[in-house]
Structures are given as C-alpha cells and as structure tokens.
C-alpha cells in the first residue's frame, strides 16, 4: 500500500500499489477524495519533492504538503473552500484554511464558505471559519446573511456561534427580514428566544409577529407577546397580527392575542379589521370568537 500522510503523521489516504502509476495520478486520486486543487498538492518522500512523472512501484509512505496559496492558486483554493464547506468536508476545509485560502470569497450567487456551512448545518466547519476570522456580515446576491439563513433553517447551535462571534442581529435578508423575522416565519421558537435574549430589537419586529400569527406558530407568538413585541400596530402594514391569524383560521393564536388584550378594531393597510378579514375568508368559527 502507498500511504499518504499529513505533516502530523496522520494518514489521509491509502492506495494499493498498481492503482496509481505515478505521482500525478496519486494527486488526482487525492483530488477525488478531498477536492483539493492539484496545483497546491506537493508530495514528499525522504525529504525530496516528487515530480508528477515520478513512478510509484513499491509500497511506502509519502507526505502531503499543501503549498501555501499564491496569486495563481487563490481562486482555485477559495472555490475549493466553498465547495468543501457546502459538502461538510471538514478535513479539506482545515487544510485549505491552513494554506491561506480566502475565507470570504463569494461564488457567482454571492455565497461564501461561511454562508454555505451555516445553511447546510456543518457546525464544525462554521466554528473553524469563525475562528479563522470569516466575515459574518457578508450577504449573497439576494441579501441573505449567514445568520438570517441559519435562523430560517433552524440551526440553533450555529446561531449561538454566530452571535458569540458578534454577527449583526439587525442586518436584513431578502424582503427586508431580520434574523428574528426569519426564525419566527419558520416557527423556530428556540432561535427566536436566543435572539431576543441577546438583545434583538423588538421595536421594529411587528412583521415577525404577523408572520408567526398567520402561520399558526403559537409558541412563537406567545414568546413575542411575552417580550412585548408591538402587537397593536394599526394601518401601517399589509396585515395585522390578529387579522392575519383570523383570515388564516388560526383559532388558538386568535385566542392568545385576544387574551393579551389585542384591539379587535385595528385595521390593516386596506382598512380591514380582523373581523372583516375572517369574514372575507369564510372563517366562521373565528368570526364567532371575534363577536363574543
């Protein structure tokens, strides 16, 4: 067997003699395993750098040295880091970061290695990127940040790590949604709680309450009411929290909001009250509750 070792002596790969004829093919084999740019791979044996044409015809060990990223390999290394972060390939990410790959380069969609790792839930890679100083506030082409995507995807521990790294809680993603709005829209109550406990702005989060109410996320609505997120806004929004819950048939949410003394006569931007919204949508049971 031909063993490929890291500088630490840890084995990265083992290949049967005969499966690879020369160093060039061994490098391509490593590429298939770890998606490392071939231009950065250097194999050393007994202190000598092996050329790509060097024949491998006997068992033994070779050491992999990842050549530090230079101008020529910067783009390839950064692209490989993004792919490895998206796929959850921890070892590749570790090797590329040590070689100096650009942590914050964006692909054509504007996604960085950190954004992909957060979206896909690769906690260890997120930790490595943050420790390496990855920028938490970069946005992709549609305005999403690592934090807004992690909140929408329900990645609790990743959200904690991003907040520990001082990610901005108030940056907005697509449609102007903050991290709290993204969590509430999807019903991720634990993430909403973490954001509120860490000081997320409650004054401008009426939209989060409206979305949670319309989706029937009872626990989220309860949390937002507990933290005194404004639920009495009138006329400024396309929907009120009570109106959206009413037209969507979310009886438990309607009852909760009424118990919290929500004004039943609040109107949305079209001048409709909750009663009018529920009537228009044929929500007879909600109509009865509102008329009580």
Give the topology string: H per helix, E per strand.
EEHEEEHHHHHHHHHHHHHH
Helix content: 40-55%
Mean pLDDT: 91
Shape: elongated
The CATH class designation of the domain at 201-291 is Mainly Alpha
The end-to-end span amounts to: 81 Å
* Rg result: 27 Å
And the CATH topology of the domain at 201-291?
Answer: Serine Threonine Protein Phosphatase 5, Tetratricopeptide repeat
Strand content: 5-15%
Count up the helices.
15
Number of strands: 5
- Would you identify the CATH H-level superfamily of the domain at 201-291? Ankyrin repeat-containing domain
| Strands side by side in the biggest sheet | 2-1-5-3-4
- What's the CATH architecture of the domain at 201-291? Alpha Horseshoe
Largest sheet: 5 strands, mixed
By secondary-structure content and strand pairing, the structural class works out as alpha+beta
Low-confidence stretches: none
Pfam family, one: Ank_2
ANK repeats: 76-108, 109-141, 142-174, 175-201, 270-292
Keywords: ANK repeat
Organism: Symbiodinium pilosum
Describe this structure in words.
The chain has 292 residues and is of the alpha+beta class. Among the domains are: 2-66, Phosphatidylinositol 3-kinase Catalytic Subunit, Chain A, domain 1 (Ubiquitin-like (UB roll), Roll), CATH 3.10.20.90; 201-291, Ankyrin repeat-containing domain (Serine Threonine Protein Phosphatase 5, Tetratricopeptide repeat, Alpha Horseshoe). The protein has 15 helices and 5 strands. The chain has helices at 23-34, 74-87, 90-98, 113-120, 123-131, 146-153, 156-164, 179-186, 189-197, 206-215, 218-226, 241-247, 251-259, 274-280, 284-291, and strands at 2-5, 11-15, 41-45, 48-49, 60-66. A hairpin with a 5-residue loop joins β1 (2-5) and β2 (11-15). α3 (90-98) packs parallel to α5 (123-131) and α12 (241-247) packs antiparallel against α13 (251-259). The longest helix has 14 residues, at 74-87.
